[in-house]
Specification:
The chain is of the alpha+beta class. The chain has two helices and nine strands. The strands form two sheets. The protein has a six-stranded antiparallel sheet, covered by helices on one side. The chain has a three-stranded antiparallel sheet with strand order 1-2-3, with no helix packed on it.
Amino acid sequence: MRLLVFGVISALGVVIQLNGIQHEEKQLFFRLCSDHLSIEAIPRRPIIVDFKRMKEHPIRDHELLMWTPHFAVLKNQTGQEITLRRNGRMVIRKAASETVARNAAMEVMNLVLRDFKVSN
């Protein structure tokens, strides 16, 4: 079985096509950082992360390495470091591949939206 994979960056995010089936990563835009070693994940819609609550109740399956009122540095169980800013932007470091970095970012964003998003 041959797997056809390609990505297109559009105004709506990154679209991945797998054997003719489209899956849109709706929550985040991704781009390679200038150091070419990390990936930046940018929320599609504006959010505010409740860092005070995150400090009191750490994010599930992640170690809180550093915390300030403006950003937090998390480490997931597979070793990626995620710098999360108050506006939801993330930088993912120490990922073995772009796919691993994207998955780590989507996992953190899902947990943030569920547990640490400030209500508007």
